[in-house]
Write a structure and sequence with these properties.
The chain is mainly α. The protein is 71% helix and 1% strand. It has one domain. It has helices at 30-55, 57-62, 69-96, 103-114, 123-135, 140-169, 173-189, 192-205, 217-246, 253-269, 279-287, 294-329, and strands at 14-15, 213-214. A two-stranded antiparallel ribbon has the order 1-2. Helix 3 packs across helix 6, helix 6 runs antiparallel to helix 7 and helix 10 runs antiparallel to helix 11 (279-287). The protein is globular and about 55 Å long.
């Protein structure tokens, strides 16, 4: 397949033995209770962040803020490249599972679905993508497998990025050795013989059916490397924004890349918060405490949230408009 990741035998999808998910009694009261708890938790973390910002407002107001358009433009380019890379990775995952979707259609599906992650629960992003792919005639089971791998590769690559840069962040011989040892361990977890039962257990906890197929280890390693590169790109985009408005030095670049990857992992773990709202900002603030005053770091983290959202919406608009234009030219609109 042109453009696909296809190692001779290891790269092809491999069937796995399905495990039957245990049936659990229906609990109609649980969903409303979880929704209320979610709203309360989001409100609490937003309150504490706002309260911290108010207490630190003197340092925020007195900080020597800057605005350097050149660095700001480079930040926008870096984040646009990051989002473009994510669409390519999604297309490659589909092809890795033998799903023939034209790149413009796959990219449009990906960008439309990510808008749903701002809805509390995060599940709507996956449901919308599955529905959009089904409308293209793609089998839902293989699309689901591609989504599971996308999330697993995203988290593992973020952890690998943190492990690679940890010695540049805070060098401690023992901890540094453990961080480097974590890299082959994470790679081993993505091997089909490890990933199949592990993903089956996670999906069973989430009351979802297990995967019918797994991706070959060779293809997984190539994609893992690509995802790691994308975290370096995204972290650089975040640092460029900090450079543009706070004058943060280049020495803080590894720290910002690590903080960005860590914020993603923590945001994924705290899945009850839509798009990791509040949680990611708290991680950034704590990570940059040695580089910037606490209130300034929080203000920058909030600005980063707004900045990334604006770029994300712009990227979505560009991809959707481009895909619609191509369809119109091909007479398939």
């Amino acid at each position: 397949m042109n453009g696909a990741i296809e190692p001779p035998s290891a790269g092809s999808p491999q069937p796995v033995v399905p495990l039957e998910a245990p049936r659990r009694p229906a609990r109609p009261w649980l969903r409303p209770l979880l929704r209320v708890a979610q709203v309360l938790l989001v409100a609490a973390i937003v309150y504490f962040l706002v309260a911290y910002l108010v207490r630190s407002w003197t340092s925020v107001k007195g900080y020597d803020w800057t605005l350097r358009p050149g660095w700001l433009a480079l930040s926008a380019v870096a984040f646009l490249l990051f989002y473009f890379m994510q669409t390519v990775f999604w297309w490659l995952l589909l092809r890795g599972f033998g799903l023939r979707s034209p790149f413009p259609a796959a990219a449009a599906t990906w960008v439309k679905s990510i808008l749903a992650r701002y809805i509390p629960g995060n599940v709507f992003m996956y449901l919308s993508r599955a529905w959009l792919c089904h409308a293209q005639g793609l089998p839902v089971d293989r699309v689901t497998a591609a989504m599971v791998y996308e999330q697993a590769l995203g988290v593992c690559s973020a952890l690998v990025t943190m492990a690679i840069l940890f010695p540049f962040w805070e060098y401690r011989p023992g901890v540094t050795a453990l961080s480097l040892i974590a890299i082959p361990v994470l790679m081993a977890l993505l091997h089909p013989r490890m990933f199949a039962p592990l993903s089956a257990w996670v999906l069973r906890v989430l009351r979802r059916p297990p995967l019918d197929v797994t991706l070959g280890f060779g293809a997984v390693l190539v994609l893992l490397g690509c995802f790691v590169v994308s975290w370096f790109v995204a972290g650089t985009g975040a640092w460029l924004l900090a450079r543009a408005v706070t004058g943060l030095t280049v020495g803080a670049l590894p720290l910002v890349i690590v903080a960005n990857a860590l914020a993603y992992v923590v945001g994924m773990a705290a899945f009850i918060f839509p798009s990791g709202i509040g949680v990611r900002e708290a991680v950034f603030t704590a990570s940059l405490a040695k580089q910037l005053p606490g209130g300034v770091a929080l203000a920058w983290a909030l600005l980063l949230r707004v900045w990334v959202t604006v770029i994300e919406l712009a990227f979505v608009g560009l991809v959707v408009a481009g895909e619609a234009l191509l369809r119109r030219r091909n007479g398939t609109a």
